[in-house]
Amino acid sequence: MALPLGFTGARLDRADQVRVDAERFAAVVADPRALCLALDGIDFVPGEGGGLHWEPFDPADTRAPMLLGIDEAGVPHFVREPAPGQRIDARSRTVMRLLPLLSGEEAALYGGVRSLVDWHVRHRFCAVCGAPTGLFRGGWGRRCDACGAEHFPRVDPVVIMLAEFEDRVLVGRQPGFPPGFFSALAGFVEPGESLEEAVARELFEEAGIRVADVAYVASQPWPFPSSLMIGCRARALDPALTLDETEIEAAMWVDRAGVRAALAGDMGAPFVSPPSLAIARHLLEDWAG
């Protein structure tokens, strides 16, 4: 597996012991070196030379600070709680055109910020009693003063997998994909099933194939809005496809030469490959050798 995967490799110390200690948290908020990440809604604001734009922490800003972590020099890094009533579209991928401006480490940090900010926007009210919630734990949780319930950011597990049959691999496309674009099939893990069962179920539901020998390859956070992509491979028992056309517009088996041509961006390749940030591309690179 080629490393690093997109949105991995952030190096800030998440400082959980500071988050849970009100006195220590107040001390890092008061640190004159503290920095705050500039955002445009949920998208990052590029700095002058590219990269993330960090501003001096403004104590006059009334929005609650959320501690992202502390760097090797001891400088705390924050992002502000979204303004009341602010609406964002965390599923929008318009920021993808800006991501090449970031280093891998910056993209990883921004991905976490994006998911965290979105979570706060969607959890302003208690899921237990409906009362308003407020930040605690340095911005990594919300507490309901009415009923005492505590809520914490979550990620949605998603299996993304390549099925293999006789030295060919299965790729598919959804109706909204760009022309010629194919990728690994994927789907959310449902309650009461293992990762292996989720892989088998999704491949059968979307492509009509039965598989065995499911194997884990690698994982990747995907902040659109907050998924953990769990990359796997599996051996198909039969190549005949029966597509769920509400989910999959087209699918095909591709040999190694075809996958390598797609990864190289060859004009005659059988499909357009996923971008380097996506774990689907890493799965294809790993399979193609």
Task: Detail the poorly predicted runs.
Answer: none
Characterize the quaternary organization of these chains. Answer: single chain
Residues in helices, as a percent range: 10-25%
The Cα radius of gyration reads: 21 Å
* Number of H/I helices: 6
Q: Give a short account of the largest sheet.
A: 6 strands, mixed
Keywords: Hydrolase, Magnesium, Metal-binding, NAD
GO molecular function, one term: metal ion binding
Pfam families: NUDIX (PF00293), Zn_ribbon_NUD (PF09297)
GO cellular component, one term: cytosol
Question: What would your notes on this structure say?
Answer:
Helix 5 crosses helix 6. The mean pLDDT is 95. Strands 10, 11, 12, 13, 14 and 15 form a 6-stranded mixed beta sheet that branches. This protein is of the alpha+beta class. Helices cover 22% and strands 27% of the residues. It is built from 6 helices and 15 strands. The chain is globular, with a radius of gyration of 21 Å. The chain has helices at residues 16-19, 22-29, 104-122, 195-207, 256-264, 279-288; strands at residues 35-37, 39-40, 43-44, 54-56, 65-70, 76-80, 133-136, 141-144, 150-151, 156-165, 168-173, 185-188, 211-222, 227-236, 250-255. It folds into 2 domains: 16-151, Nucleoside Triphosphate Pyrophosphohydrolase; 156-288, Alpha-Beta Complex (Nucleoside Triphosphate Pyrophosphohydrolase). Belongs to the Nudix hydrolase family. NudC subfamily. It is an enzyme of class 3 (hydrolase). One of its GO terms (biological process) is NADP+ catabolic process.
